């Protein structure tokens, strides 16, 4: 028997809609600047004909279920929401084609990529990684995953977020610069995708700050509703 110095972390488990089974989370990949209007509001342009998607990651331990109340994070004064369509991978794949990509999809969820925007922009200006702005405790919010068998393949549908009842983000999944098939095919060139991987596919325009006491709500057609409350 192997003895550890301290208890090993428990596996991170996401809920599955309509099931008592759990989805063990392996990795969390996030696509950056995947809506033209959001890229523009961040002060950059994206040309799909000359550029490729890029990614950052969040540790699985950052995952929080929808409906939670979480504290305002440390070392930031500009804490932003980003509403995202999330793809859950259920089958291993490496160097898959776009035509094969659907075979890897277990299901879909709605997610929030919570961001310490001031730290992200400071890192960006210095040409440094975004980890302090993106990969921190309780920064990835997730609804129960809806299996493909319950909803079929999704490549369009409304995505919307409100803060305290006022709509701040409203778009459609068909406006993704790189769609889900393209993302899976591209990402699988660099990683052996595994069951349990989550891909946050990017956020539309309208991102902005929240403060203690704010309540975030949102939805994605055929996927689900998300909710998060910010505590002191």
TrEMBL record:
Pfam families: FAA_hydrolase. Residues 28-230 form the Fumarylacetoacetase-like C-terminal domain. Keywords: Metal-binding. It comes from the Bacteria. InterPro entries: Fumarylacetoacetase-like_C, Fumarylacetoacetase_C_sf. Gene3D superfamilies: Fumarylacetoacetase-like, C-terminal domain. The keyword rRNA processing does not apply. This is Fumarylacetoacetase-like C-terminal domain-containing protein.
